[in-house]
Amino acid sequence: MNSLLEIEDLRVTFNTRYGEVTALDSVSLHVKEGETLGVVGESGCGKSITALSVMGLIPTPPGRIAEGAIRLNGEDLTQASEKRMQALRGGEMAMIFQEPMTSLNPVFTVGDQIAEAIMLHQKVDAAQARRDAVALLDRVGIPSPDVRAGDFPHQLSGGMRQRVMIAMAVSCRPKVLIADEPTTALDVTVQAQIFDLLNEIQREFGSAIILITHDMGAISEMADRVAVMYAGRVIEEARADDVLDYPQHPYARGLISCIPALGKDAGGAGDMLAEIPGVVPPLHKLGAGCAFADRCAHQAPRCAVDKPLLAAHGHHPVACHGVEEGWL
Amino acid sequence: MNTSFLLRRLGYGLLLMLGVVVLNFLLIRLAPGDPALVIAGEMGGATQEMLDSIREEYGLNKPVAVQLLLYIGNVLQGDLGESFFFNQPVSSLIAQRVLPTILLVITAQVLSIVIGVVLGVLAARKPNGVMSAFVSVFATIGYAVPVFWTGIMLVILFASIFPIFPVEGMQSVKLRDASGLVKALDILHHLVLPAFTLAVIYLAQYARLSRASMLEVLGSDYIRTARAKGASPRSVLFKHALRNAALPILTVAGLQFGNLISGALLVETVFNWPGMGRLAFESILRRDYPTIMGVLFFASGMVVVANILTDMSYRLADPRLRGKG
User: Fold this and answer.
1) Which of A141, A319, B193, B312 could form a disulfide with A235 if both were Cys (CB 3.0 to 4.6 A apart)?
2) What would the DSSP string read from start to end of A262-295?
3) How far is CA B130 from CA A64, B116, B133, B134, in A?
4) Cα dihedral B203→B208→B210→B211 (10° resolution)
5) Residue A96 — left, alpha, or beta (φ > 0 → left; ψ -120 to 50 → alpha)?
6) What pLDDT shows up at residue B325?
């Protein structure tokens, strides 16, 4: 089956006081109907910028899509008019954000906010939109939805607000649903509920989901395929099981070794949780070589001068000289 | 809106006005000048006996504390006293003047908020754009220029250079007996310059405030949500953002109301507008204690009412405040 959403060689730049920096470089991703693509990486590696590019919500200026294409059902969104993007946003594609506490407008009731999304994209009157909103609240598991629809966001808990965000996002049965760290701000039991809900909704609506997260646990639970991003590039991409079981890039291996394992007794109670030393380099300081080189335990001379490209090496596509040359 | 909140605010308001009465009374008596001398002067001369009899008549020979208690007692009974100068009850003097002042103050308030907020919102849309720069410069000038100067400049401009707006009074003499629409239009015509003069300083403040407030709101997560669901730029700006940005504007509007009334005093003087401000100005010159105190009492009452209304509208605008004391 053809991909529903295809991102091809996307390059996004921002004008900063350090000059123009490249936030995304040669990013190619695709996702099919009913599929979940996990996008992982640390803060600042370009996950959210990728999502915002798809939605056409990059703040312009300072940001701009410099190269590449984003195709939804074959239509290139980078060439679409603002009017067209308005019709697509919330209709064909929708997004759930990281912060349910601040992502809902404090002065409107949640019912009104969902009804607004419905009326923006469907030809229904206010009363019908309101009924649909209540039905959606019921669908996402909010008790007594007809009463809750009249609540303001501050009257709901974080988990409830994220359910409202999901109800709003799926109100028009989007083909593509982007979830940008949807559970980061929620506690663990609520996280599991939200993932279950997303899975149910995907089965029901057949949406493609792009799940952005830095939580590998979420990936193993949700994703069919995974793209690992680092410093604005995709550095490894494969089926979720492959990346989780056979991570190739040193960064991907690092991320996976950071998952705390219950019961797997490696070194006893005093065992330290693994971490990747250092931080993502600032975008204006990216050199000619591999962006991860400075943090990599296996750095070779070539890594500092030659940027590795994503290509099928070893088990699956990865951007690493070590894997390519077989010494890693 | 809960009633206990309203009752409590009304209670505070009454206490505040009692405080205003006491303070006004004492402040006026601290100021130099003797009303008996002024009244005697108006009558053509002063002998000691005349001064004594004037003091006796107006109760000015009693100790200040006694005068104060008598005055409070009268005010509580709704009696603001008798003007030294007009020989009329102060309450009827105020009644004649209150409508022009309310008309001027409300018009200026509405003008400044509406124009100021629109300018601010347009400026916030492009924080580095021309409109934004204009608002910043205009706000600085509007803030710096004293209201009487603006008034006098407008008088000069429209009295001699472009005589299209009247610069004096509230009604044309020849239209004094007109009725209905003609009279209303005549008053509106006279209202333009005083209202604009009074509005301009606050307009600048509202423009700057709403620009800053909008910029803050436009960066928030729920604005991104609104855009992500496909809302149009206009709806994002005027529905999603402005409702939130309006909260600090409302606060300032309530606080400014008092300043607006004191500004009205100057504007009424410059434009000879027959309102309470001019009455206050004339009464201060004449040491007409009861009238000054009456005007100040009434003006403080208006400010108290305006603040209660602000609090109530604040609760309407921000659901998070509802149900809280």
Assistant:
1) A319
2) SS--SS-TTPPPP---S-PPPGGG--SS-TTGGG
3) 22, 16, 5, 6
4) 140
5) beta
6) 46
Residue indicated by tokens 């009827």: B92
* Neighbouring-strand partners of residue A37: A210, A225
Taking CA atoms, A29 is separated from A10, A11, A40, A57, in Å, by: 9, 12, 13, 18
Q: For the whole model, what pTM was predicted? A: 0.78
Query: Pairing between strand A233-239 and A225-230?
Result: antiparallel
- A280-293: buried (b, 16+ CB within 10 Å) or exposed (e) per residue? bbebeebeebbbbb
Report chain A residues whose CB lies below 8 A from the CB of B230: 86-91, 117, 120-121
Other residues' Cβ atoms within 10 Å of the Cβ of residue A307: 17
Pairing between β-strand A208-213 and β-strand A36-40 as defined by DSSP bridges: parallel
Give the residue carrying structure tokens 């009924």: A131
- Please indicate whether, in this complex, the C-beta atoms of A152 and B240 are within 8 angstroms of each other: no
Tell me the two tokens of residue B196: 């604009």
What are the Cα distances from residue B239, in Å, to A56, A113, B125, B246? Answer: 21, 12, 14, 11
Q: Which residues of chain B have pLDDT under 50?
A: 325
Chain-chain contact of A89 with B230 (C-beta, under 8 angstroms): yes
A57 contacts B227? CB cut-off 8 A: yes
ipTM here: 0.85
Decide if A188 touches B, using CB distance below 8 A: no
Phi, psi dihedrals of residue B263, rounded to the nearest 5° = -65, -35
Which of B217, B221, B225, B232 to probe by mutation at the A interface, max A CB count within 10 Å? B225
In a 3-state reduction of DSSP, which class is residue A318?
strand
Residue B323's pLDDT is: 63
pLDDT confidence bin for A251, thresholds 50/70/90: confident
Partner B contacted by A88 (CB < 8 A): yes
Structure tokens at A212: 């952005």
Contact status, residue B262 vs residue B302, Cβ threshold 8 Å:
no
Question: ω into residue A143 within 30 of 0, thus cis?
Answer: no
Total residue length of chain B:
325
Distances A105 to A78, A109, B257 between C-alpha atoms, Å: 28, 8, 29
Q: What share of chain A is helix, strand, coil (3-state, %, to 5)?
A: 35, 25, 40
Residue B70 is encoded by which pair of tokens?
Answer: 């008598």
Are B247 and B154 in contact, with CB atoms under 8 Å apart? Answer: no
| Residue closest to B244 by CA, chosen among B225, B230, B258 | B225
CB of B113 within 8 A of CB of B257? no
Which of A225, A221, A151 has the alpha carbon at shortest distance from A192? Answer: A221
Domains of chain B: 3-76 (no CATH), 93-321 (1.10.3720.10)
**Phi and psi torsions of A274, nearest 5°:** -70, 150
Tell me how far apart the alpha carbons of residues A275 and A265 are, in angstroms, rounded to a whole number: 18
> From CA A11, how far away is CA B232, in angstroms rounded?
26
